[in-house]
Amino acid sequence: MMDAWQGWLYVAAVVIPLAAFVVQILGLRLFRKQTALIATGAIASSLILSAIGFGSYFIASGGMPSPHAEGHEGESPEASPAAAGAFSEGRAAPLAWSGNWTWVSLGRGLLPDRQPLAIPIGIRIDALAVLMFLMVTFIATLIHVYSMEYMEGDPRYPRFFAYLSLFCFSMLGLVASSSVFLVFVFWELVGICSYLLIGFWYEDRSNSDAANKAFIVNRIGDVGMLVGLGLLWTQLGTFDIAEINAGLSAVEARQGDALGRITSEDPGAVWNVMIGGTERSIPHWILVLAGLGIFAGCVGKSAQFPLHVWLPDAMAGPTPVSALIHAATMVAAGVYLVGRFFPLFSAEVLLVIAYTGGITLFLAATIALVQVDYKKVLAYSTVSQLGFMMLALGVGGWAAGLFHLLTHAFFKALLFLGAGSVHHAVHTYDLRPLGGLRRKMPVTAATMLIGTLAISGVPLFSGFYSKDAILASAIHFVSERPGHALLLVLPASGAAMTAFYMFRMWFLLFTGSSRGWSAAGLAPEHGQRDDPAALAHESGPRITWPLRILAVPTVMIGWPLTILPLAVAGLPFHPVLEDWLSSAAPLPAQPLGSAQSWAAATSLLVLVVGVGLAFLAYHPSKTIRRIDPARMAAHLGGLYSLFVNSWYFDEVYQALVVRPCLAIGRRAAWVDRVVIDGIIDGLAAITVALSRLDRAIDASVVDRLVSLVAGMIYVLGGVGRRLQTGRLRSYLMVLSIAFVLLSVGVLVWVVR
Amino acid sequence: MATLLVVTVLLPLLGGLALLLAPKLDHKAARWVALATTLATLAFSLVLVGAFQVGDASAQFAFEGADGHAGLPWVAVGSGPGIRFALGLDGVALSLFALTSLLLVTSVFCSWSSITERAPTYYALLLFLETGLLGLFASLDVVLFYIFFEFTLIPLFFLVGLYGGPERRRASITFFLYTLAGSLLTLLGVIALIVVHYRFSTPQVLTFSIPELTEGLSRITSADWAFTRPLADSFSLSQFLLQPQVFIFLLLFAGFAIKVPLFPFHTWLPLAHVEAPTAGSVLLAGVLLKVGGYGFLRFNLAMTPMGTAVLAPMLVAISVIGIIYGALTALAQTDVKRLVAYSSVSHMGFIALGLFSMTLVSVDGAVLQMINHGLTTGALFACVGVLYERYHTREMDRMGGIWKRLPLFAFFLILASMGSAAVPGLNGFVGEFPILAGSFSRFPRATVVAAIGIILGAYYLFLMLQKVIFGPLREPGGEGHGHGHDDSAGVPPVQWYEIAGLAPLLALIVIIGLYPKPFYDRITPSVESIVARFPAEGAGMSTEPNQTVSAPGEDSPRALLARSAQVTAP
Question: Which residues of B touch A669 (CB under 8 A)?
């Protein structure tokens, strides 16, 4: 049952888009254009409810929490594990509203003390969920408005908004879910929405290919997640995230580790976990497996290496969809779940998470460097930024990772919507023929520049603060575990590449003058005129206003309370949002110490390198431009083609997984038809052959015998015929003889 | 209510006889008669569903005979209660009973326009089949069960053989002989059960009643019967196989495994499905396959639990092979109907996995999954029928973009496929999840392999959707002329009867997916009563000794079985 009225507020915020979806899909013919208004109205009301919820949470939790990490600053390293151990008693549990209802319960009555499988549906709204709600509904509302103009004239305009409503419901449900089972349910539902929207223009074969790829690659991760769910249920008997978190936070193994992680030399060590008042135990290796399983799901959804291949293809969907689903919200769900379920992951799993994130961010950044399709640049940049978040979580920067999730959502949504605005004007995604759009599309150019500055990590823009926090966590981790220096090298070089490719894209799109198809050595797409930008003009207000509005949080949400860019040592440097987040962390944050200043220095350094290179290579002014990109590419040689071909992941998967799978399928079908059915047919044929043999025997032996008997009877009949004399006297004689014999017989029988 | 149950079972038989005896009905009159009969049957069975006491595990709506036994005496055998005409429904049977009566309505709608020749006979056969199936699920007597079990073959044989596709003769004969051969072995097994019960029970009673046999057999304490040794502890294979519970299990298994069908026994299924008329496929996949699962539950699991337990690892292996194998084979098909047929092999493998994992949760899931599979596969076959009626081909490579032509059909097909691919929020998921969760606690490795079947399941179904629904419009037969422009002549939109046949199935697909509680509430008590008889782990049997050990101090079979196994370090 619900424990606070705010819970109902959030239930309403989740359900309203669902209701809107049902109304739209049933009245698809009836409403036509009005579906857009229904969908937008629904998500706007969810936004209002989320805002009320946010305000209420702010008041109920006693205003702004004190900077948590600073509080631990003075404590000695020996004291901090004790603090970790005392989590459940010492630290006041963060405020959360929750409610649970039974959905399915199997095996009631058989065992009164232990329910074999009870699946509740429930919501749990904590500080993180409050922020996520606000972010999702805010961005979604703007994207709805944007889509009204962007999708205008599409024959399936109403259907598009119906899908968007379904997506909003699923995404909000995912954020609100209290149990990992329910997360899985919504996880698949957002996957379905993504499938439907990627394949929205299904007439094009490549679009439905991309949709299938997205769904199936996600399913691969989901199987891992199912295994994780199975392990958790078998061992701990519950799916409730908060219960499992509380139990695992207090595990004594955390106390022996400087970073507060669950570590064990012995994989067979068994942890005792208190789950909802009963003690359960879980061996360490199962905990690791369960963590890896859940993480596998997150790898799929958040497009991490090696399952990142679906996200770039997913750009086949309409651009508002890419902005909402494949940049801001759904793809971040994997990061969100890792954050939500953080205490589950033991030291080994966290290391895997960190390295997965590191490899992903590096790979994707290298690919983004050389893309000629500006939507693909953004797609790979999304993969790369998600890698940053995963890395942050893996190295223990819980607040840093989720902080970056929130800042990234805003600036990446802004960038995608900007890209959509450009496409709306020039009808191509190819960078090469474009250029000089700044004068024709001033609002788009300006807002995209803000987004570019934010994602590159320029101070004063939100991305700087979150990336800085990630680097600080990484530095802190590497200083504790020097063997893992790669976890610092990868994000640092990735950040430099991010700054480079983003500025490259911005320069190529908006500065200089339009190059035209022929100058770029290309044939125009879809019979366009040579200069795609010739007729370009700024988009209408329903596109530009969302861009303007999104630019505000893109700049501001990372700001510290003291609005101090001149972060001098000693002054509170923490962004408000990060502090808010870390106060809600499921595990107490680690004091970062001097890592902060190092991080600030590092991020400025890589920024200068990245932006500097971009200026040298792509700035319109000849005096600044010193490097020819083509020569740079030639210097890279084999690496360049590796990057252009996305490290050949698609080709490798095609050769190693897809084709063998289909071949085995064909082989199995052949086996089925020829071998297995052959055996059955063979048995049948043997039976038939046996019966033929039987018939032969029948004809040659049995039938002969029968004929023989028949013949004999015939002969006897002939004999008998001779007895048929026709003379009454002979008959009477025979009759009387028979009678006498019979009487004698009867007499003998009776007398005896 | 007991009378209503008998009436419900016999009503289709009467309807069928009326169709046969009525002079010269054309197909229009015949289909209305058939529809009225199936609708009335459905209405009655819904009344039974409404009257069903939730929470009661025993068979309900049974006649109480004068001598204290259920049902009316039919054939007196010896001094015991004899063979009786005993009908009744427990939670499991009730669900399948209702599913049957619903799918029959769908089948009549599926045949609405496609059957014009010899229609009265056709509908009469459908109705006879319905009586056979309803009677089978409602039987409380072994002999009655067997009679209905075999009776279903006859109408189906003629339905496939007379009204099927080009290879209908081969299909019907293969199907008939194959299933008949299996069910004769099952008959032997059933007789053996009766004899064992008669021989060992105290006091000696010769009973044919299913509940009494189940109860009586579980009470037998004779070591010969009750103690069953796993293969690993046996001296030889023959010693293992000749143990009474194992031997009888295998006899019973033969018939049901072919019905389900489990992996190596499945080859009759694609042939029969492809050749059968649409209604035949709907019923074959929807209900006939469930007879095998129902038989496993009623006889194998309930009456020879020890045998099941020692054979479980092998059975689980077969099920998992079937899951993967069926899915891979489905992936290679180009004929939609064949694809759906092979998907049945894969999905029935999940159901068998749930049953043979022998945990309450997995068996519960398997029973619900039987209903779910009936609904989704029934709907898929009906969709294929819709397609075939318009284009007279089922080759996926020859069509595409049908969404444009038949948007409502596309919606139906997508929903049914997603239900089948176990997308959460739809019914397949709420059945598959408990199956996997339950079997995971018992056979973790096998379950992980089975989970790969989920990926493949999504793969072939979405590939099918992509080819049929998405892409540019390509219609078989219309390729030669008018490339690209809309030419809707000749392809009628989805008709009212097609909607009427599919809509209830799709509604249930969504309802079960969103709120499965009422369904599970009816199934669970009956499943519990069967699971409670399962042997304790470690007592005369063990499964995967390295993976699962029983906790000390808990030795009651009920406690041990429902408890999820503790997984310990190797």
Answer: 328-329, 332-333
